[in-house]
Amino acid sequence: MSSTAQLALLSEWDRGRWVWNQCVAESRAAHTAGEKCGFVPLAKMLTGWRSKHEWLRQGGCMPQQQTIRDFTKAHSKALKDVKTGLPMRRRAGMPQFKKKDLASLTLNYTRRGFRLKDGRLHLGGGIRLTVVWSRDLPADPSSVRIYQDNLGHWYASFVVQAEGQPLPETGGAIGIDWGVKETATTTSDAHDLRHPEHGKKTAGKVARYQRMMARRRPKPGRAASKGYRTAKRLAAKAHKKIARQRQDTARKWAKRVVTEFDQIAVEDFRPRFLAKSTMARKAADAAISATKHELINMARKHARDLRLVNPAHTTMDCGRCGARAKHALPLSERTYTCTACGAVSPRDKNSARVMLVRAGLNPAGVDRGRPDGPPVRRAA
């Protein structure tokens, strides 16, 4: 990317960030004044802001309008989800001011705000970018997002209508249970995904770069030294490599699963609570959410039947007869023993079997159990 185009994008981002901060300020002021939900006609205010500030008129109108749409959507969602008596600025999920050094650089353009011509991307405001295409676009894009990563690399992400690529049917079904020791435990031993530990293998290098940054950290009000900027870039590069390794591992495993199985029952696991536990570091390195996301996308792409299963009581139910244990198993106990039918199996394997049963993909293999109802106890 040329220095002229990069400077134009940074200037456009500064204008968009100013518009976002103005939206936050106007919304809080309206809320303080007692207006309903702090509602203000932000779209109409943009015209006044642009007529008042010449430097704002120099940028494209499309990304500024999209900034207001994004703010309105986030503000409406926060008011809908959070009903508390706290001030607006302290409510969870409420849009906050964007600081220049902390906010991620992102610009959104709808169809009227950009065009593709001769392999170049033309954005509103007279910005022209030479794009290095990773692959051809399958259809005309409806929008594009320009963003910069922590290494300073620029990317253009297009939204297109993609067609599915169905795979040949195999007639197989698989249940998947998420965990920490093994990222994914399945009903098929050949498809278990062991913890790759990408972060653990690179932890020493990342710690060394962070110590370099700590020693060279600039004092408040002073510019960062060349050594600090070098150490910061090395640390960002190491983190980027770890993220790409996790994504590559997840995509390859997901591709193998959807290729060999038509029906997939997946635990609808949300690992956010693990961030407050003693397993936080290992759970973050396992990248359960990223792996689950790649599996869902791969199943949608290849037209596979994927069903999300509620994870409640999956460690207490028996995957063979459907009976439920009276007490929850502690994490230290890795073997599940059913008191009703006497089945003994590894804890995670039993949970994967329960996923398959609850999704209704393999109900014939369950004795005296109902996937969607309570377990039927054995008669005395």
TrEMBL record:
List each copy of the Cas12f1-like TNB domain by range: 295-354
Q: Which family does it belong to?
A: In the C-terminal section; belongs to the transposase 35 family.
Keyword match DNA-binding: yes
Which Pfam families does the protein's record reference?
Cas12f1-like_TNB (PF07282), OrfB_IS605 (PF01385)
Q: Which UniProt keywords apply?
A: DNA recombination, DNA-binding, Transposition
Q: Which residues form the Probable transposase IS891/IS1136/IS1341 domain?
A: 159-269
Q: Which organism is it from?
A: Streptomyces avidinii
What InterPro entries does the database record attribute to this sequence? Answer: Cas12f1-like_TNB, Transposase
Protein's name according to its UniProt entry: Transposase
